[in-house]
Specification:
This protein is α/β, with parallel strands linked by helices. It contains ten helices and six strands; from the N terminus they run ααβαβαβαβαβαβααα. It has a domain of about 170 residues: Rossmann fold (3-Layer(aba) Sandwich). It has a six-stranded parallel β-sheet, sandwiched between helices. Strand 1, helix 3 and strand 2 form a beta-alpha-beta unit. It is elongated. The two termini are about 45 Å apart.
């Protein structure tokens, strides 16, 4: 059999200008793989996050008082990272309220978020062996008007008097309105958002606030999944490594030693 070779062959060449990217990818991959492996062996430690540790207290308080738990993901749609992180937390909260037999109320800003929340809560109740206790009517769509949603949630707080309010997701100007109303009814409040502007309002009006990446690390903290906790640990060490490298780069640049740039910089 005679093989017919094409007239031109595409040759793959190594781009030396992207060596720094290759080194960074190898380091990131190695750290993530190592910490996932270590997490599976039970050797990882995550510092306690007071806001997440207080979820048990909040649900327990609502159970003792015979009052519901109010959970809201805010104004974010399903594609927002903060909303996805909130759904991960919701799964753990739903399992706790299912085991305690506490009502869970979730007014939703977006219909897609409502559908996802219903499925998350339904699955959590099933895992706790209490599928019959699931109430889809407690997870409902309100409106996509920002302050209309805030008014509706405030109305739920005033009427239902929940013992615990969980504000976890994307929040904007309505954050202080919600938090102050919850504070006025004496509810224990736990908040978390990816908006640095709104964090200040939550810190003032809520009992516990997830600050910065604590919201995104919450799912791994609550579930203990080694893949998630290992990734979180790897990210922390990568931040330390990047900070050290920046410091070394500043010192070398100040001393006019440019071999680091010559090694990893563009040619």
């Amino acid at each position: 059999m005679q093989m017919i070779m094409p007239d031109s062959i595409l040759l793959l060449t190594f781009n030396a200008n992207r060596l720094n990217v290759l080194v960074a990818l190898l380091i990131c991959g190695a750290l993530v793989a190592y910490f996932i492996w270590k997490g599976r062996r039970g050797g990882l430690y995550l510092r306690p996050i007071s806001g997440l540790s207080a979820i048990d207290e909040a649900v327990g308080r609502a159970t003792e008082m015979g009052k519901p738990v109010l959970y809201t993901t805010g104004l974010g749609k399903m594609e927002r990272v903060a909303t996805i992180a909130s759904m991960n937390i919701l799964g753990n909260v739903a399992r706790k309220v299912a085991s305690y037999g506490t009502p869970l109320i979730i007014p939703c800003y977006d219909p897609v978020v409502m559908a996802v929340a219903q499925e998350v809560v339904k699955e959590s109740f099933a895992r706790e062996g209490k599928p019959e206790a699931y109430r889809s009517d407690n997870i409902y769509y309100v409106t996509q008007s920002q302050f209309g949603y805030a008014a509706a949630v405030d109305g739920v707080m005033v009427r239902e008097k929940p013992a615990a309010n969980l504000f976890l997701g994307t929040f904007e100007a309505e954050s202080l309105i919600l938090a102050e109303t919850g504070n006025s009814i004496g509810a224990i409040q736990i908040a978390g958002t990816d908006s640095t502007i709104q964090l200040s309002f939550f810190i003032v009006a809520c009992d516990y606030t997830l600050i910065g990446e604590e919201l995104f690390a919450a799912s791994g903290y609550l579930s203990g999944d080694p893949k998630v906790t290992g990734s979180i640990k790897a990210q922390d060490w990568l931040k330390v490594l990047i900070t050290v490298l920046i410091g070394i780069g500043v010192i070398l640049s100040t001393a006019n030693l440019n071999f680091w740039q010559n090694l990893f910089g563009p040619k």
